[in-house]
Design brief:
By secondary structure, this protein is an alpha+beta fold.
Length: about 240
């Protein structure tokens, strides 16, 4: 069996507001460029109020990176859906893009898209709720949404401080990987940002970007993972 290797990254950009309280989208994009990723999922990519304007200008993404934006917005203004946005390196084929509503007391959503690589992989980008019972319900919903998919990656801000509780819905179908502590960026104490890989997807390596710029650009540090997607007939 041969494999296709890609690097996927996840980054809660805090609406491009750094620890110095300055909104600097160019700083966020510089951090993203250091990740050498093929796919980057972002959380808090849109402002919270009003029409939810993007925290990263579209023209700046186009001019300062090698990424293209996956269109997810309902209003034609925001970058994403419930703050979840997706960047893919130019040349990567994306299909089956959809927005997924998630249960819970606070409004949350996730986005799903398929990468046409190898056997194909379905990627879920999500920012989970603040309450554990909501997070469990949200994880159950995503497991149901991808039940027929042969290969799935869930990436994002899991908002779970515990290493042992809260992720029970993933126990039988996914391996969960926390590359390291990501929050708070100034003094990381919790591994809130994670990847969940379904059976058949191999993790080669993973890490946390801890450069000087990343430590001031957001309250989270970005994570990355090198994964292998097997070659086989797609079943999703």
């Amino acid at each position: 069996m041969t494999n296709n290797a890609i690097r996927i990254a996840s980054y809660n950009i805090r609406k491009a507001r750094g620890l110095d309280q300055r909104r600097m989208p160019n700083r966020i994009l510089s951090v993203i460029n250091t990740l050498s990723a093929d796919v980057v999922v972002l959380q808090e990519a849109d402002r919270r109020l009003g029409v939810r304007e993007p925290a990263l200008p579209r023209m700046m993404i186009e001019s300062e990176t090698d990424f293209q934006l996956v269109e997810l917005s309902e209003n034609g203004i925001s970058l994403g859906w419930h703050g979840n946005a997706v960047l893919v390196r130019k040349g990567f084929a994306v299909s089956h893009v959809e927005r997924l509503k998630l249960p819970g007391l606070e409004p949350r959503g996730a986005v799903r898209f398929d990468l046409d690589i190898g056997a194909g992989v379905s990627v879920i980008a999500a920012h989970f709720g603040l309450m554990r019972r909501d997070r469990r319900a949200q994880l159950n919903a995503l497991c149901d949404a991808t039940a027929s998919c042969a290969h799935t990656v869930i990436a994002g801000d899991f908002n779970e401080w515990s290493q042992h509780k809260g992720l029970e819905p993933l126990e039988h179908g996914f391996d969960v990987h926390a590359p390291g502590r990501t929050f708070h960026a100034r003094r990381p104490m919790a591994a809130l940002d994670r990847f969940a890989l379904s059976e058949g997807i191999q993790l080669r390596d993973a890490g946390v970007e801890q450069g000087a710029l990343a430590k001031v650009s957001s309250d989270h540090l970005p994570i990355w993972a090198d994964i292998d997607v097997p070659m086989a007939a797609p079943t999703c």
